[in-house]
Amino acid sequence: MSDRVAITVSSHIAHMTLTRANKMNALDPAMFEAICGAIDELSAMPDLRAVVVSGEGRGFCAGLDLSNFSGDSEPMDLMPRTHGFANVPQQIAWGWRTLPVPVIAAAHGVAIGGGLNIISGADIRMIHPETRCAVMEMRWGLVPDMAGYPLWRGNVRDDVLRKLVYTNAEFSGTEACELGFATETADDPLARAISLAEEIASKNPHAIRAAKRLSNALADSTDEALLLAESAEQTEIIGKPNQVEAVMSQMEGRPAAYPDNLRSSSQATIE
Fold first, then answer.
1. Which residues are registered as beta bridge partners of 98?
2. What is the rounded distance in angstroms from the CA atom of residue 196 to the CA atom of residue 207?
3. Quick one: fold of 204-252?
4. Tens digit of each residue's pLDDT (9 = 90 or more) over 222-268
5. Rounded Cα–Cα distance for residues 180 and 124 (Å)
6. Which of 4, 103, 105, 194 could form a disulfide with 34 if both were Cys (CB 3.0 to 4.6 A apart)?
């Protein structure tokens, strides 16, 4: 779709790859545009069940390509909300959270600055234990502003996050898991991410989408709203053909067969 990202789709699983390998997939204006476009394209796929995000070459993403942001250029106006609640730089990370299906990131080599933000938007984050990670913005006299704060909330301990932001200290993929930035380490993060995506894609797709909506609401919904949302989501699932198929396939010891065109017409409202 561009010289910055590529999307392939197979068996209801999309794989979006950052393809600027010669620059360690560093983020330039074209990369921002391409990732936002990829998220829009994926959100319009009705039969999608899972997404894998990875980077070509020696690293996942090295953060901002500073050669494209000279002191002579006018700073981007960050205040307009171009993608729902987010602006363009925020959307490349936050947008993964807004997709209706689970997103699994696979990081290796480097996940620095904006790269760390991108994987933080995924539901699940696989990372090579030796991956170099950092909340890098303070090094350049900036604050993290690519949706990191709402994505790290609840995952990374408050005082630890403050230390890493204030100092831009580097940490490994192993430490990223310990700190809450990543889910698990793998010697081959992409293979592990694809395997997990295949497992997720084998489940009742309506239940998976409902579970993502509930998971997205955890951070800032009241107990009352979450209890009501659980009931609303379950009401739209229980006894429906896909849920019956999930039960029957288990009882009969066979893979479940769910139909295409899976976009649910029901969306439980959480306030």
1. none
2. 16
3. Lyase 2-enoyl-coa Hydratase; Chain  A, domain 2 (1.10.12)
4. 999 999 999 999 999 999 999 999 999 999 999 999 987 655 434 44
5. 11
6. 4
